[in-house]
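Review form for a predicted model. The reviewer records the input and the model, then writes brief findings.
Reviewer: anonymous (R2)
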Amino acid sequence: TVCGATKTVTVDKTTEHTFDDWTEYDDNQHSHSCECGEVEYDNHNWDGGTVTVEPTYTTTGLMTYTCEDCKSTTTEVIPVLEIPENSPYIVVDTKNAVIGSTVTVKISLTNNPGVTSMRINVAYDSALLTLTEVEYNTAMGGQTVLPENIEALNGNVVLYWADGFVNYEGDDVFATLTFNVSDDAVVDTTTTIAVTYDTEDIYDADESNVTFFCDDGVITFIDYTPGDISGDGVLNSKDTTRLMRYLAGWDVEINEAALDVNGDGVVNTKDTTRLMRYLAGWDVEIH
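Model under review:
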């Protein structure tokens, strides 16, 4: 420090590495490096996770985990919530519909805990179905509001019923919709009739919101008349006779598409019973 002369001494090499911060290496590990070139790897150290997207009864959620060392993240899908047993439901009919004809679709309540007002939206494909009539269940009492101009609806209709004083607790039909089926519908294809509502629009007499789950309806387009076993285009007791003979093993001509009259996926004598009841005027469905 006085004259500028120098001397050199030997310094023992270091035995300690000086690593930089951990950084993500891949989905499973992170790494950090020493200035000497040494690289060290280790598995991610995930935290307990944070729910970043809440699951619902219809959509999955998302859990995000963060590595406490390198701060990389990974995600895990949270399954949809399990619907409690015996929950209230708004159920839309699932039916067959003959192309070019009409179809009636009932919207019903099940496990109804009691409501004094309901306002729901029903969506449908107006290219395939044209709404022609809305009929509310008068047994529910209260007041209803019909669409202002049903001919001008374009795939959505609002159904609005209110009592305002007491709860209706019945499991019953809420409303019945009648549609014309387009001639452009394709055989064996389907369309959905879906129900949605705002959480504030279904409540009881205490003005407490009531949660209903929605079971959408599916319309399958067909090119035969349900129950027309003989295939002659007319539905009458001759079809019952033809079905009985077929089930008894007779060699008779039948319309195979119409055999499953009750829609349970099996052709048996229950279909005969259903057809006989329908022709006798019972309030039953045929498929």
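Findings: Residues 237-247 form the longest helix (11 residues).
Further findings: The two ends are 106 Å apart (CA to CA).
Recommendation: see findings above.
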